[in-house]
Structure prediction request, 308 residues.
Amino acid sequence: MSAPIIRVTGLTKRFGAFTAVDALDLSVPAGTIFAFLGANGSGKSTTIRMLIGLLRPTEGTIVVDDVDVVREPRRVRERIGYMGQKVSLYQGLTLHENVEFYGGLYGLEPRALAGRWRELAERFDLEAIDAKVEELPAAIRQRAGLAVSMLHRPRLLFLDEPTAGVDVRSRGLFWEVIQDEARRGVSVFVTTHFLEEVDCCDRVCFIDAGRVLADGTPDELRGSWEAAYRIEIEPAPGTQTRVAAMLAAHGLPVATEGTTLEVHLPLLEARELDALQAVLAAEPATRVRVDEVEMAEVFRRLTGGAAA
Prediction:
């Protein structure tokens, strides 16, 4: 596994008597997509603000891309791209003027900036560069906000609910870009309320009341659920007993529901897939359906059903 690009130990933030983030430990491997999830008020945005140097922690250490963020908060901002819940584009300026402004902040020379923006504008389908930001549709503003956060080719992207309020097409485009960036070695720290998006991520961390509830891959988190995968097998007439015996011979726990066989598993790995393939090879008329528990159900279980 890659060395961590984010290392957080004992991170705590108090506002008076209220503890927003409580002794948080995080480790994010470089080049991965890391989903940071929790209900509203769980401490997600407060944590991100500390990670990018906008908010000083009460206690704890933060190292981002080998920069001590507590000691050098401004230095870390040169190495990251950030897109907040409210797109960080200035109203009253055109999109082109915003690009020039941020390019200047990132120290990009005019020729390099023009070439980089052409590449991003094509990638994000951005044509209305002379329109003022407030005149742009919400989906275009979101796409432009993500594009601007990537102008300087940062090694690490912080995306706080990047797909909130956008259409399905734009959501798909965002995740294509996020996964492309990860394949190039960029690390992505992302929050989202669309829990189906979690399966696009390498690791998932759930927090509640400022504390970590669970941290692992999507499959690892599902694996804590005894019936994370439900397999329905419909044998051809007259073959049910034979198919059930084949499944049992491969070590799969088989239950009979009328004319259907069911197998419930915490994980679906190579051994189980090989067993299903063997059954289908021997009895090709058999029908198999695999359902996995939705990540929303995992979240409800972790939070005791109190949050959705």
About this structure: The longest helix spans residues 168-183. The chain has a mean pLDDT of 88. The chain has two domains: 4-216, 226-292. The first strand starts at residue 4 and ends at 15.
